[in-house]
Amino acid sequence: MFKFSRFAAVVKARNLEFFRDKSSLAWNILFPVLLLVIFSFAFSGDGRAVYKVGVIEQNLVEVAKPNPFMQTKYIDFVQYKQLDKAMPKLDQHGIDMIIDLTHNHYWVNEQSPKSYMVEKIFIHDADGLTRMVTTGEPIRYIDWVLPGIFGMNMMFSCLFGVGYVIVRYRKNSVLKRLKATPLSALEFISAQLLSRLFIVLFMVSVVYSGCNLFFDFIMLGSYLNLFLIAVAGAMSLISLGLLISTRSKSEELVGGLLNMATWPMMLLSGVWFSLEGAPQFVQNIAEVFPLTHLVSAARSVITEGATLQDVSYQLTVLLSMTAICLLLSAKLFSWDSDR
């Protein structure tokens, strides 16, 4: 029989438990405020750009000042230091034009309506540049967003799959029992990493193979390279999850910390849209996130046919993050919940 007094007592106790946990309470208040502040800076401005133009130049700021075309509103000018990095973007309609002011050339994609329109604007201000052309079919959005979706799925699986389990082990005194065994913190953490790595890669492989039968995803690179990038990315994300949960004893606190890690990555790591043309400080923030490098490297392999050498920077960052987070986790790991 339902008794309201018992029900009310449980509600009161649960509320007191939450509000007495100062760290969780503070996090629940600060997290939405923090997101609002970040996005108010990141996406504020005069309006959204309609076209995107790549500029082959070492110092974009200096060449933009005297160039009337580069003062045009609603056009994003993206700096590229090498032409071969920009050409695949133009071929796949990722950008609408390329300008090389050093050699007085510009490139347009004759199969892109946006390329046609931005050239009309450009010709009005052009002075002595030679017109070059390229061709290429636009890449499907589903092919472009595929690495982001799988990367995001891996991120949630790695972070929450490890973070909550460690805290539950600690709360249920499982870790305290393990402490009485010869098992070291590094052995326990490494075992968690390997176990989660297998689960994540297995699930991603199964889902990718199944979806590929229906969507026929584009693949310009090597599946082996893509797999190695997924391994490096998953390891860095799992290590981050281990570090976050290494001393947490509250499921609510670790949930808040995991949300703090996942939401910025989901929004600023290039999962849904490219960060090219975004403010520099937003791009600098995104560089801190392992998901940024995972998605960037996987997307380069899938849509541009990049090799491991081409994405060596992203791989180096991911492996470095893994080593740092793993060592810190082993150093800071706590077996007890009553510290």
H/E series? HHEHEHEEHEHHHHHHHH
- Uncertain residue ranges: none
**Quaternary structure of the protein:** single chain
Number of helices: 13
Strand content is 5-15%
Helix-residue proportion: 55-70%
User: In whole angstroms, how far apart are the ends?
Assistant: 40 Å
What is the general shape?
elongated
Overview of this structure, please?
With 339 residues, the chain is α/β, with parallel strands linked by helices. Helices cover 64% and strands 8% of the residues. The chain has helices at 4-20, 22-42, 60-64, 83-91, 113-125, 141-171, 174-179, 185-215, 223-244, 251-268, 280-286, 290-304, 312-332; strands at 51-56, 75-80, 97-100, 105-109, 130-134. A 5-stranded mixed β-sheet has the order 2-1-3-4-5, sandwiched between helices. Strand 4 (105-109), helix 5 and strand 5 (130-134) form a beta-alpha-beta unit. The two termini are 40 Å apart. The model has no long low-confidence stretch (mean pLDDT 80). Keywords: Cell membrane, Membrane, Transmembrane, Transmembrane helix, Transport. Belongs to the ABC-2 integral membrane protein family. Residues 111-336 form the ABC transmembrane type-2 domain. It comes from Thalassotalea psychrophila.
